[in-house]
Amino acid sequence: MRTLIGIAALCLALPGWAGPEEDLAALRDFYAGRFPDIELSAHKDGAYALDEAKREQWLEMEEFPPYEIAVDDGAELFDQALADGSAYSDCLGDAAPAVKDRYPYFDKDRGEVITLEMALNECRTAAGEEPLGWDSEELAALVAFIAMESRGKLMAVTVPDDPGALSAYEAGKQFYYQRRGQLNFACSSCHLQSVGMMLRAERLSATIGHATHWPVYRGKWQRVGVLHRRFQECNSQVRAESFEMQSPEYRNLEYFLSYMNNGMELNGPASRK
Amino acid sequence: MNMTAKLPFVLAALLMLGLSLTTFADTSAEVERVLAQAEATLERARESGNAWTSTGKLIAAARQADSEAEALELAQRALLTARRALEQQRREQGAWQARVPS
């Protein structure tokens, strides 16, 4: 009996077994300790919070933001009536279009994580429209407009006391910390273990700022793209086969990552190299 | 040299040709066997959610190889990467928790 109690106590004490609140507190402590001179809230700017020279270049780029056209396109799309005459604002609730802070969330009835992209496509299909491609410029533009309208709000993702929600959160957490691909990297290998260091010419950013600024105009993409596109890119960079955009794996990862960004200011869309 | 004198040389040449064809057929069968193993292992890695992009590329390269020897080497490398992906997945089930800050 004492052995069983001992094993149970050991399991509880193991890192990785903590709940969402403890995980968030521990992560914030980690970055506060690693970068004592940088306010935690500054990490919303990613690597530009850690590298003054790159920050100056980025701020100059932001004077004429490359995502501006996507925001305008998104505003136009958002205001267009859907096939049945309804509008996105009817479907997304009273706060629309400033609803980025409400996503992702766990839907207890459906037993899955719902992202903003999913919600937008469900608005469309409910109104008799075809869904947009997950990687389409139209969907990215809609999200860019909603992100712009939601700027200044704080990330406030909840993990309800529900086995399904906790399971989705844990799956996302495991994904983040699990090594994968031929290069044997986890997300945390770059963004925790090596945060602040250089990977080739890039400064590695902190986890607590990764979900605040999407969608992003990336110079590499020459367009605005969504978070799951970046997940795919990260996976393939370490030679791991990526998952489909909006797959349960990536939605759970987004859920965990967004929870780890709770309390951070939403500042999307953004530009990155 | 008359035909009788040439006969041993002709027989030897035919024997060598036969042997090399047999070797070629054996190698070809071996490539297919290893490729089938690599593909099955890759599928298992995909099902586990942890396949490597290198495996698929090596399988494709093996199918396009110029020689049987090259194809066999690439197929063996494909199989090795697929097995390592599965091993990584198994190992990580007990390793990832240690990376979570606490």
How are the elements arranged and paired?
The complex is a heterodimer of chains A (273) and B (102).
Chain A: H1 2-13, H2 20-34, H3 52-63, H4 68-79, H5 88-92, E1 105-107, E2 112-114, H6 116-126, H7 137-149, H8 163-177, H9 187-193, E3 198-199, E4 202-203, E5 216-218, E6 223-225, H10 227-237, H11 248-259, E7 270-272
Parallel strand pairs in A: 5-7
Antiparallel strand pairs in A: 1-2, 3-4, 5-6
Helix pairs in contact in A: 4-7, 6-7, 8-11
Chain B: H1 3-47, H2 53-64, H3 68-92
Which terms would index this structure?
heterodimer, A: about 270 residues, mainly alpha, two-stranded antiparallel ribbon, 7 strands, about 5% strand, globular, B: about 100 residues, 3 helices
Tally of individual helices of chain B = 3
Mean pLDDT of chain A: 93
In terms of DSSP E residues, the strand content of chain B is under 5%
Number of helices of chain A: 11
Whole-Å distance between the termini of chain A?
Answer: 58 Å
In which order are the strands of the major sheet of chain A placed?
A: 6-5-7
Helicity range of the residues of chain A? 40-55%
* Unreliable residue runs of chain B: none
User: Strand pairing plus helix content of chain B: what structural class?
Assistant: mainly alpha
Radius of gyration of chain B: 22 Å
Order of helices and strands of chain A: HHHHHEEHHHHEEEEHHE
Number of strands of chain A: 7
Relative strand content of chain A: 5-15%
Shape of chain B: rod-shaped
